[in-house]
Amino acid sequence: MVEIIDVNGTQVHVQGQGEQTIVMLHGWPDTYRLWDPQVEILQSNYRCVRFSLPGYEDGQSRTLYTLEQIVALIDEVVTAVSPNNKVVLMLHDWGCFFGYQFYMRHQDKVEKIIGVDIGDAGSPDHKLSAKVKAFMFTYQMWLATAWKIGGGLGDAMTRKMAKWLHAPGDQKLISASMTYSYYWKWSRTLTGKPLGHLPLDIQCPLLFLYGKNKPGMFHSQPWERKMAAIEGNQVIAFDTRHWVMTEAPDKFNHAITDWLAK
């Protein structure tokens, strides 16, 4: 049974039973539906909470949301669904960035974190080759431009990039309104404006899962070694690309259920 609650205009899907609440955040170009297979296996023991990031549902307006707005929304959701207990965060892609920033500001509300494919991206330790930097800049600027253009052309550009990057989501649900984070990032970066994000410093237990088969990593090796060396943490590399949960679903689900049960 799925309970849908409204949090400041955002539909939040609550499913399952258990004392622990898992708040699941997706990234581009997905929606809350990304986590359907995980909810199926977790709902018997955990309370699973999901919502689509603003602008990611079909028909929503093309709005430039900021880091502060997204973190505030996550805080409102966590407060609404688990006012008295800490939650587990399960994060992917931009959901990692926003979820990590929520954690850095509200560590007292987070018990554990499951981070998928995004770690300390952009940190001083995160070294990339010129080729990888060019690749990341190209696809991200393409998506930033798609948001700026908007309309049918922006949507077509976004869907083309999603297909090229092997995104598993339904193409019909993908639009330029999802790409505001890329425009927000690069419009600030190229004009010298700070993003306002806090350096990543995870002190709670962390399960970090990432795919090895992609053009470049979104985390540094020093950060991976540091996280793996902490008692209670676990780091697992998969023979996948960016969407680990859809490319290796059985191994992914086994890893998260085993770690959560410890």
How would you describe what is shown here?
A hairpin with a 2-residue loop joins strand 1 (2-7) and strand 2. This protein has one domain (2-126, 197-261): 3-Layer(aba) Sandwich (Rossmann fold). It has an eight-stranded mixed sheet with strand order 1-2-4-3-5-6-7-8, sandwiched between helices. Helix 4 (130-149) packs antiparallel against helix 5 (151-164) and helix 4 (130-149) crosses helix 6. It is α/β, with parallel strands linked by helices. The model has no long low-confidence stretch (mean pLDDT 96). The protein has nine helices and eight strands. The protein is globular and about 45 Å long.
| CATH level-1 class | Alpha Beta
Count of extended strands = 8
SSE succession: EEEHEHEHEHHHEHEHH
CATH fold-level topology:
Rossmann fold
Helix content: 25-40%
Computed over alpha carbons, the radius of gyration is: 17 Å
| Low-pLDDT residue spans | none
Average per-residue pLDDT, rounded, comes to: 96
Structural class call reads alpha/beta
- The CATH superfamily is known as Alpha/Beta hydrolase fold, catalytic domain
* Biggest pleated-sheet summary: 8 strands, mixed
Q: Helical segment tally?
A: 9
Tell me what portion of residues adopts beta-strand conformation.
15-25%
Shape: globular
Protein name: AB hydrolase-1 domain-containing protein
Pfam families: Abhydrolase_6 (PF12697)
Domain AB hydrolase-1: 22-254
InterPro entries: AB_hydrolase_1, AB_hydrolase_fold, AB_hydrolase_sf
